[in-house]
Amino acid sequence: MSRARMRRPASRQGGYTLIEVIVAFALLALALGLLLGTLSGATRQVRWSADAGRAALHAQSLIDQMGVGRPIRAGRDDGEFEDGRYRWTMEITPWEDPDIPPDAPLPVNNNGNRLYEIALAVQWGEGGTGENLHLRTLRLVQAGLEDPL
After folding, report:
1. Contact, 122 vs 87, CB < 8 A?
2. Buried b (16+ CB within 10 A) or exposed e, 76-90
3. Beta strand ranges found along the chain (DSSP E)
4. Backbone phi, psi, residue 39, to 5°
5. Distance of alpha carbon 9 from alpha carbon 30, whole angstroms
6. What is the pLDDT of residue 12?
7. Which residues contact 98 (CB under 8 A, 6 or more apart)?
8. Tens digit of each residue's pLDDT (9 = 90 or more) over 93-115
């Protein structure tokens, strides 16, 4: 009896099979792939946000200079910032009130001041697939300070 007690039937050893290990690695790879994809998308969004913020600052700077550092005159101008990374185009036109029909007499302006519309477009990004920012504003030019059209 003692010998029978000592002999136990061969039991299966504990551990993982090869299939279980392969499935675990596949799930781990899938999870890491999704995580890296999410982080990559977030990085792209942060970069786009930084570029858009810089474009807005450059645009604000250009518009703020109009009438102070640069005279307001009707026409078109363009240029670039940061060695061509940001390109801008500005168009200045005398503003006409869209609510006044074209055949109606123009209101009398006794003081001679004139409103100008400033349309600014800033582009950035590589190639033709870049991003755009468009701004429009009005500026009042006092009589005698505007350039003749």
Report:
1. yes
2. eeeeebeeebbbbeb
3. 75-81, 86-94, 114-124, 131-141
4. -65, -35
5. 41
6. 63
7. none
8. 988 877 877 777 766 666 778 88
Joined tokens for residue 14: 């504990």
> In this structure, are residues 116 and 139 in contact, taking their beta carbons and an 8 Å threshold?
yes
Under a CB-based contact definition with an 8 Å cutoff, are residues 116 and 141 in contact? yes
User: Each residue of 10-36: b (16+ CB within 10 Å) or e?
Assistant: eeeeeeeeeeeeeeeeeeeeeeeeeee
Beta bridge partners of 149: none
Find the angle CA(111)-CA(112)-CA(115) to the nearest 5 degrees.
115
pLDDT band at residue 148 using 50, 70 and 90 as cut-offs? very low
Q: How far apart are CA 12 and CA 128, in angstroms?
A: 66
Cβ–Cβ < 8 Å for 57, 65: no
Residue listed under structure tokens 């942060």: 46
Amino acid at 110: N
